[in-house]
Structures are given as structure tokens and as C-alpha cells.
Write a structure and sequence with these properties.
Length: 192
């Protein structure tokens, strides 16, 4: 009986000490969360693919023609070559996009497009860099028959500065928007 009373008293004391420290723990939690986000995040990697009902040559021709970008990428404003020939190995271009163009507040983003490797249909690697976000896309086209092409993309995002924190909360939105662009390209190809 005495042991039970002593253990109950000790348990009460432990809980009281924990509850005394609750305000400190509540204040400590956001600091730990932000530290975790800054240290451990900053990267996002995923893959996506889509079947396009068109032959592989047509799909590649339409995709590689930078003047058609506005037809399937909502918000595309301009595509300006800086070095090399459009979408070939070693070329660099500047792309300006308007994000949230259908909303009352929109913003423009300018990114650099650097083609690292161009060996289509097998593999193409492009790095898109805004300064705060770098997106390395590896893609390929696979012939699935006379009128079907599989378009496969792998994204590797690297976030800098404040984008490390926001990427933790917006990764699903980034993936949805990326797939929306991919689906928009499919519709463009199949209707042209």
C-alpha cells in the first residue's frame, strides 16, 4: 500500500514537472520544425508518365518546337534563346511564365532552361533554374505502336532559401501542376 502511494506521488510530481514545461515545449516546437525543414528538406523527386495517342515522331516534333510552348503551357509568356540552337545539347534559353494568371494576383517568373543532354527518344536532360528552385527533368519517349507514345518524365527539384520551407507544404501542389502541364501537352498533340 505504501509503495503504491509513493509511486502515485512520484507520478504526480513527474506530470507536474512536465506540465510546468509545457509553455516552453510549445515555444520550442516551431523552432524544431523550422530547423528540421531547413536541414532535411530541399529536395523533391518524383516520376510521371502519360500515353499520348499519336506517333512518336509527331510527339517529339511538337514537344521540341519551343515556339509551340504557349499552346500547352498555360501562363507561358516568352521563350528567348541565349546560347545555341533551341532545345539542343548545350543550349540555354530564358522562359518567362505567369503563375496564377487566372487569379486576381499573378506573378511572373523567369527561369533559365539549360539542355544538358539531348538524345531523343532515349533520353533528354534539362535543368530549369529560377535561382530559388532548380528542377532537373529527365524525359524520354517510348514508341508503343503506330499511334501511341509513352511520355515519361522524372523530376528532381532542389530548393534554396525560403523555398526549402515552402516546398514541405507545397509538394503535392507542385506534382499536380506538373501533371496538369503533361496532360495539357497530351491534349495539344492529340488535337493537332
Amino acid at each position: 500500500m505504501i509503495k503504491k502511494m509513493i509511486s502515485e506521488i512520484l507520478l504526480k510530481i513527474k506530470f507536474q514537472k512536465i506540465f510546468e514545461n509545457v509553455p516552453f515545449l510549445i515555444l520550442l516546437f516551431p523552432a524544431i520544425l523550422v530547423s528540421y525543414l531547413i536541414i532535411s528538406t530541399g529536395n523533391l523527386s518524383y516520376q510521371e508518365e502519360i500515353i499520348i495517342n499519336s506517333n512518336i515522331e509527331n510527339v517529339m516534333d511538337l514537344h521540341e518546337n519551343s515556339s509551340l510552348l504557349k499552346n500547352y503551357m498555360p501562363g507561358a509568356i516568352s521563350y528567348k534563346m541565349i546560347r545555341g540552337e533551341s532545345r539542343t545539347s548545350g543550349s540555354i534559353a530564358e522562359i518567362t511564365l505567369a503563375f496564377n494568371s487566372n487569379e486576381s494576383v499573378s506573378r511572373k517568373i523567369t527561369m533559365k532552361e539549360e539542355v544538358v543532354l539531348s538524345d531523343l527518344p532515349n533520353k533528354k536532360i534539362i535543368i530549369y533554374d529560377t535561382g530559388a528552385v532548380k528542377n532537373k527533368i529527365t524525359y524520354r519517349f517510348v514508341n508503343m505502336g503506330d499511334k501511341k507514345t509513352k511520355f515519361f518524365r522524372k523530376h528532381e527539384y532542389e530548393f534554396n532559401t525560403y523555398m526549402k520551407i515552402t516546398s514541405f507544404f507545397t509538394s503535392k501542389k507542385i506534382k499536380r501542376k506538373s501533371y496538369k502541364y503533361l496532360n495539357s501537352f497530351k491534349e495539344f498533340v492529340e488535337n493537332n
